[in-house]
Amino acid sequence: MNKKFNKLYNILCVIFALIFIAAMIITVSALPNIGDATNPTNNEVSEKYLTDSSWETGSLNAVSGMILDYRAFDTLGESHVLFVATVAVFILLRRDEDSRKDLPTRCLNQSYEQAYDPILAKSLEFLIPAIFVFGIYVIANGHLSPGGGFSGGAIIGAAFILYLNAYGLESIERFCNSRTYLICSCCALLFYGLAKSYVFYVGANHLHSIIPVLADGSILASGLILPLNIAVGVVVSNTVYALYIMFRRGGFSR
Amino acid sequence: MNYLLNNLPEYSAVICFAIGFSILLLNRNMIKKILGLGIMDSSIYLFLAVKGYVAGTVAPIVTLAEQAAGVDTTLYTNPIPAGLVLTGIVVSVSVTAILLALTVKLHEEFGTLNIDEIIHMVREEDRRKE
């Protein structure tokens, strides 16, 4: 009976998926053609961003200027979503000595620690500094070239994960433990929140900050965008590393 | 036929969405369900990203000379979908992380990832309590 029901369920699922595809393809074929400059999505809003963001915000990259200046609240929310997700995972997966005792034995027999690999360790001596420098470059040039806090932060987080796998937890926790995680994330989020919430007090359309906008294509050209990019990069790299370490062995060791 | 081929990336986004959705429905394994959710997310990004594309244009990074002389907007793609996709990626990463953490907890509790077996075990437990 149950097997028959499963078979029927599977067939119904496939039929449903096919009907869904057909209905959506009919809908999508009524949409305007891709790549047409006269499409309704390419309206005066994107025109405004493209023409004005380069001198109003000093950011040559229109996407950076958009997400960190005109729509900076959106990015503030994104950073907080990342932080809250990390905290939720931390609540679910944290293991201290007490909770370790209560766990079934099959969960304790897994070996989390990787054996020391001389090839990985030696090659990462050259690679890790290069990856860090590249990540910092991507963050710092977020307003001049493709990149920004999110991509650069992900690169730096990946470098942390590589370091952890090559040299072990003991060695990375000298400079990257739960305390530095908390201090860096909270400082970055607080700075971002304060830097942008002044808009509430001085009127909604206030684009200017204390830091001058030079708009000359240099690294300091875009005023507040560079510090905000760094804050986002710190939050993202912390999140990537913290999520990894939580799933690996249930939290920081100190 | 030409009419059908014009919106090809959007068709593939729709089909990817349906594939992800059927994975969500057909698989009993929680990890595979989460993977299906990831495929659905990615198809939405494809759909959004393709909405901002304008044929024959480049990424919206202006040059210094243009900044001084005034930007020619017909040379660049639409920057707004890029920002929207960024928001979507961040949210999907967070949701995936929380779902995976909950799955780890489920596995610790029941020793299996099969959702049918888990439901069965929960029902047995309830019956025993009664």
Task: Report the span from N to C terminus of chain B.
Answer: 63 Å
SSE string of chain B, helices as H and strands as E: HHHHHH
Mean model confidence by pLDDT of chain B: 88
- Relative strand content of chain A: under 5%
In total, the number of strands of chain A is 0
Radius of gyration of chain B: 22 Å
* Global shape of chain A: globular
Helicity of chain A, in percent?
over 70%
* Tally of contiguous helical segments of chain A: 11
Explain this structure to me?
- The complex is a heterodimer of chains A (254) and B (130).
- Chain A contains eleven helices and no strands.
- Chain A is mostly helical.
- Chain A has a domain of 176 residues.
- Chain A is globular, with a radius of gyration of 24 Å.
- Chain B is mostly helical and 130 residues long.
- Chain B has a single domain, classed as Helix Hairpins.
- In chain B, 75% of the residues lie in helices and 0% in strands.
- Chain B starts with a helix and ends with a helix.
- At the A-B interface, helix 1, helix 2, helix 3, helix 4 and helix 11 of A face helix 1, helix 2, helix 4 and helix 5 of B.
